[in-house]
Design brief:
The protein is 46% helix and 14% strand. With 352 residues, it is of the alpha/beta class. The chain has a four-stranded parallel sheet with strand order 2-1-3-4, sandwiched between helices. The chain has a four-stranded parallel sheet with strand order 6-5-7-8, sandwiched between helices. Helix 4 packs across helix 9 and helix 5 packs parallel to helix 7. The longest helix is centred in the middle third of the chain and has 27 residues.
């Protein structure tokens, strides 16, 4: 049965179950921390709070959003919970669902998150979404897995130097994919991949692995390239992490399999393996080596406590692996990010 669009559902986190929202008849719409709205979150939140949350709330203050049938917030960290608390003060008519996200991916966490997804399905139905059969969920998962594979093709094109527009183009595609009907974006990407590309790699660029939280502005991606860096691998909340294929089998227990697939995605700073606290550091090292990076850049937004807590372990693991690390901070504006240009250029020059 074709998906009947009943409106946009806003979301802000890479762990949001996009396939479930789509199966209910909605289009997931990523509220990215972009735009030129003046800063006003200080009216309802402490100013010393995550810039991602503040810039997202700026868009609510500025009404810089499409009509939303509701919003799904994920309680991935305390700052995101505060965003869910503050949103009704700015847009009191919006309907909100808050999902609790476990910090681990063990059996008990998967069971808990499965119940959260089931509760979300009931909420979407109450909001006017259509009832979901297992086959609807399976179809939606398949569509998003197809989208993931297409975006992987574009990542490969970029790494080969055959993507017109480079890293900025790739980030623009991520942004569109997170805010467009999945059928439409799949069609757009299929048309683009059907056009022959001529490889023109920049052999003088230095291969770098980039990880962190949110960095959605394509101008930031272009800035890395202008500094001589070739981002040959990345793990960002606004990049490939959103579109990793869900590892589901038969979907006989769809909510549990969705929960396992989402919790099994690449680890972000708020995810913890209690038996091996340094797992995130090991994974950063492994991915950097896998893509042949000569160095690693970590980007964090200001006041992101989970990442600042993990960075010492990551720094030590990279030092042990003899991989240089550059840590940069931003406030989700190019004004602050542009100030990092000299540091990025010096880091890239050191890697040559």
């Amino acid at each position: 049965m074709p998906n009947q669009n009943t409106g946009y559902i806003g979301f802000t986190c890479a762990y949001t179950p996009l396939a479930l929202i789509h199966a209910a008849g909605y289009t997931p719409y990523r509220i990215l921390p972009l735009g030129d709205a003046p800063e006003r979150p200080g009216q309802v939140l402490n100013d010393n709070l995550c810039a991602h949350v503040k810039r997202t709330l700026d868009r609510a203050f500025d009404n810089d959003l499409p009509d939303l049938a509701g919003l799904v917030f994920v309680g991935s960290c305390d700052a995101m919970r505060r965003l869910a608390d503050a949103w009704p003060k700015v847009r009191p008519k919006d309907r909100i669902a808050l999902l609790d996200l476990p910090a681990t991916a063990d059996d008990s966490s998967i069971s808990f998150f499965s119940d959260e997804l089931s509760r979300l399905a009931d909420t979407l139905l109450q909001w006017g979404g259509r009832p979901m059969a297992d086959s609807d969920i399976k179809r939606s998962v398949g569509l998003y897995n197809s989208l993931s594979r297409l975006l992987e093709d574009f990542r490969s094109m970029h790494y080969r130097g055959s993507l017109d527009g480079g890293a900025a183009k790739l980030q623009d595609l991520y942004n569109k994919a997170s805010a467009s009907p999945v059928d439409e974006i799949i069609g757009l990407l299929e048309e683009e991949t059907a056009t022959p590309k001529i490889s023109d790699p920049n052999n003088s660029a230095v291969p770098v692995f980039l990880f962190g939280n949110v960095l959605p502005d394509p101008s930031a991606s272009a800035l890395f390239e202008s500094c001589g860096a070739n981002i040959v691998g990345e793990d960002l909340c606004t990049g490939s992490r959103v579109f990793q294929p869900l590892k589901v089998d038969g979907l006989e227990a769809p909510f549990r399999e969705l929960a396992a697939g989402l919790l099994g995605r690449s680890r972000c700073s708020r995810t913890l393996d209690a038996s091996r606290p340094g797992t995130i550091a090991e994974e950063v090292v492994a991915r950097a080596k896998e893509c042949g990076a000569r160095g690693v850049i970590a980007h964090t937004v200001k006041f992101c406590d989970p990442y600042f807590a993990r960075l010492p372990l990551i720094r030590q693991a990279l030092r042990d692996a003899e991989l240089p690390l550059l840590i940069i901070e931003g406030d989700c504006t190019m004004g602050s990010f542009g100030q990092q240009k000299t540091r990025i250029e010096a880091f890239v020059e050191m890697l040559r």
